[in-house]
Design a protein that fits this description.
single chain, mainly alpha, 2 domains, two-stranded antiparallel sheet, two-stranded parallel ribbon, 11 helices, 4 strands
Length: 176
């Protein structure tokens, strides 16, 4: 019921929000306040504003310089490490927790089928011991996804990338 209410509120304010904020110079205010510290605010109005900004503006950008500017603002000054740390502590650790942890009414395994598909692909093709195989993650944030696979397939190679140096430094502290 709460989820339906949130969706109703989101859709109710979406178009006025786009007209007022995203189609005017006020978008610059949102660009500056779009930081890790503001993304997960508890205030429902701020959460809706952040989601609308991300869904209706940021995710639709094609200008690489503008994307980089907003990203640097969102993750700069120690916020990249906070972001990675948040995901590090929210992440599942193994297959058991992937299958048991829930997102709403479904398990994480059902919500994110890519993990099971990658595991099945590696096993089906007998690649578990192939030291020429690399799993590369673009935008790896906390590094927990790769760590998850490493714990299942330790003989494979793993390559982590991210656009933020603070996030990569976080990973270096947590993993070999």
């Amino acid at each position: 019921m709460i989820k339906m209410f949130k969706k109703f509120i989101y859709n109710f304010i979406k178009y006025p929000f786009i007209l007022i904020f995203l189609k005017s110079p006020l978008v610059n205010i949102l660009k500056k306040r779009f930081t890790y510290d503001n993304i997960y605010k508890k205030n429902i109005i701020e959460r809706i504003l952040n989601r609308l900004f991300q869904d209706e503006y940021y995710n639709k950008l094609t200008n690489k310089k503008e994307i980089r500017s907003i990203t640097d603002n969102a993750l700069g000054e120690g916020r990249g490490e906070k972001w990675a740390n948040y995901y590090y502590h929210q992440h599942f650790n193994n297959l058991y927790t992937l299958k048991k942890k829930r997102v709403g009414l479904i398990t994480l395994n059902a919500a994110m089928p890519i993990f099971k598909k990658i595991i099945d692909f590696i096993k089906k093709n007998n690649l578990e011991n192939n030291n020429d195989l690399y799993i590369i993650q673009l935008g790896s944030s906390s590094g927990k996804d790769l760590d998850f696979f490493y714990n299942i397939f330790p003989k494979l190679n793993y390559l982590s990338t991210d656009i933020n140096d603070e996030i990569l430094e976080f990973q270096k502290k947590k993993y070999k």
